[in-house]
Amino acid sequence: MRSMGFSIGVFDSGLGGLSIYREIRKLLPRTPLVFLADQKNIPYGSKTRKEIRRFTSQGIEFLENKDCQLIVIACNTATTGGIDYYRRKFLRLKFVGVVPPIKLARQQTKNDKIIILSTNFTAKSLYLKNLIRRFANNFQVKSLGCPDLVRVVEQGNIESRSSQRILRKRLDHLILNNYDSLVLGCTHFSFLRSQIKKIYGRRLKIFDPSKAVAKQTQRVWRKIRTGTLSKGSNDRFFTSGPIKEAFRVGSKLLEKKIEFKQTDK
After folding, report:
1. Domain boundaries in the chain?
2. Is 75 a catalytic residue?
3. Nearest to residue 113, comparing CAs of 206, 205, 182, 179?
4. What value, to the nearest 5°, has the Cα angle with vertex 100 and ends 52 and 233?
5. What pTM value is reported for the model?
6. Rounded to 5 degrees, what angle do the CA atoms 176, 179, 183 make?
7. What does the pLDDT read at residue 230?
């Protein structure tokens, strides 16, 4: 017999969503979390909208069967590809998506020049274009799709020379043109913050959605949770890809050992 669903599910196409998991864990230390990385189908940024919705729906179904009643879509591409679609399809579940913090960047930029770093799908999406039109319509916004940076994080090479080289290739010319604000539009990129700061220092202010997503998750969870939670988090981690690689990279990103199990996908 299934329980009534006292867990929060965190879904991503890969391991970038661990940046969201990490912040949720800080705010909800006693709530069990179930993390799922669909590494078999990564990258989502090169997929069609139909494929993204299909893969994400499969992930949601998996988490629902693990007794999750709140699903955090910790993937900008999956969110822009169909957050409203998932809400209509899975009426019994609650959802929190990831939205690039463009509004916050608009409020804090000094010269009205903003960079948005994301996957190719998100960079080209109507969802992102509408966000820019709504919150930064009269600002100079450069949207960059950077799938090579997603691969860097998935391989655990966040402090490598290759990551520095890619960042410089993507950002140097924009920094020279006085762009002062960087919006992280992919959860993978949260793990590159220290590298970006190391290269650009005070010249570039970074806007990361992780903490805001965690706070929204906390707000929604407090509204819907019922019953008594067990003491301790008892988190579970799953991947549709190779377990050993998920363990190696995931443990490196979180700076602690985490054991992954294989999905049936």
Report:
1. 7-98+211-262, 102-208
2. yes
3. 179
4. 75
5. 0.93
6. 135
7. 52
pLDDT at 247: 97
Report the distance separating Cα 151 and Cα 160, nearest Å.
Answer: 12
- Closest of 225, 250, 240, 206 to residue 32, by C-alpha: 225
- Written as one letter, the residue type at 263 is T
CATH topology for 102-208? Rossmann fold (3.40.50)
CA-based torsion, 178, 183, 189, 194: positive or negative: positive
By the 8 A CB rule, do 116 and 100 touch? yes
Which pLDDT value is given to residue 3?
A: 43
pLDDT lower than 70: segments of the chain: 1-5, 226-233, 265
Catalytic residue check, 68: no
Please give the class, per CATH, of domain 7-98+211-262: alpha beta
Q: From 77, 86, 84, 78, select the one nearest 122 (Cα to Cα).
A: 77
Tell me what pLDDT residue 234 has. 79
Residue 202 is predicted with a pLDDT of 87
- Name the active-site residue from 131, 158, 186, 206: 186
Chain centroid to CA 101: 12
From the candidates 18, 72, 75, 136, give the one annotated as an active-site residue.
75
Q: What is the pLDDT of residue 265?
A: 52
